[in-house]
Amino acid sequence: MEAESEPYVRLATMRQLHQAVADLNTARSLADTLQTVADGTVSGLGYGLGCVNLVRPDGDLVVAAFAGNSAAEALITGRVGSRESWERRLSMGEAWDGLRFIPHTEGWVLLEDDVPQWHTEGPEPRFEDEWHPLDRLYAPMYASGGGQDLLGVISVDRPRNMRRPGAWGREALQMYASQAAIAISNARLRANMQRALVRLEREQQALRASEESFRQAFEYAPSGMAIAEMGGDQHGRLLRTNDALCRLLGRPASALRRYSFADLVHPEDIGTLLRTSAEGGRAELRLGRRDGTYLWVSLRNSVVADTADGPRFLLTHVEDIEERKRHELQLAHRASHDALTGLPNSAELRARLGARLCERPHSVATTAIEALDAAYGDADASRVHGYQADGYDADPVPGGPYDHHVHTTAPDSERDDGAKGLAVLFCDLDGFKSINDRFGHHTGDAVLIEVARRLSTCVRDGDTVARLGGDEFVVLADGLGAADAADLAVRLRNAIIPPIRVDGRAVRVGASFGIGWAECGMTAEEVLRSADQRMYVEKRSRSKVHRRAG
Fold it and tell me: Taken in order 123, 128, 131, 132, is the CA torsion positive or negative?
């Protein structure tokens, strides 16, 4: 029948399509545009029901507009169908060019999926092209009028003539879907532009308020703040400082404008300052005060600009951390030093000893030539001198595990060949327990403090005197030969033996020393155990009268 009146159908369809598209351009908002799209399928294209399903940011489709039945509109508007279910629908049935038609003979499998849908009542079709109540026709809308970026789907139902649309009806629906996609995209663009304009105005208002707030915050901040130049010959020069920074450094603002932080930083901290990035950089360093002293501060940098394209400046927040640094140093000292004597404690002793040791097997001798080869990365020369000949590949080239490490070796105990090493003198006080038991812990503590002082005065700068615990002390002395270590042990014992006066009472303690040697291939525990064992050998070898104290 459509073929017999094709010119009339074509003209009427074009008029209806033109009017429907014209109505799309009159909508003022995105919501109006979506509703106009749905209304156009009913008033312009001749369907009894029309629905616009819009893709959400998460990919699912929501019923955004409905036309033709108020009861159905109230039932499904705002409901969501999953993207997976929609993709299944758009791949079923018959492809009518850009449309998708699912006849009732196939669509019954969709009755239980999660896509919002309505059901219309009607008689069973009597003709092949008659519309069935369960027939479905979808017109996908793609962004920019084409491609695979799905914008939404127009669903239509119940053509007024109750016939499946012919060629012109299908083309009209497809053209309408294309124009609807453009109208929806334009509406979204206008909505985004309106939101952007509103946001821009708010941002400008906020910027003006922020500038005033920044000025007040900068001037009246309780901690120091400074603005410095970025780039150019004057990079880092202070342009503006607040009162708090002037008070912190004891310098007036006019004087600070002649400096940069590089001029004020402690010489030892200049590297820290140079490594601090401009954007988000943080550093803890010392700045010089007018009186010549230095103050620990925390610097935090950020980059600010006068305008979007204007010059950039460095905003630096300066916080006084002198008290915290002093407290941290005290805590670090407490963690690594004995609370009673002030000497390095057991953990610090093991750390210092372990820093001198490596895992290199002690059977591999280190010669002066090997040390030079390791320092300068001469891998071939090092192998000539026996690393691989003994079955060990120490790989002393730069970047290897022993790069720049000076191996610690022990002097030969059988002969004095002039070799030097790291001596470990293990000291155990003789008679200390009887003093503790007889006179109490107060006297015992005073004895330990005096012994620690005497030991410390007998060693060189750079040597370590540590309290291992109880009445045990350890001395680390580098660069000693076997005879040197024995002489040092005698001097230390002689320094301990003289009477110690506590509360008007003179008490005496003796000392037994065991001399061990640190050597690469050993652990710190093994070194200390070796010295401890030699101390007990020495203690047993001396007569009790010589060890007696009181």
Answer: positive
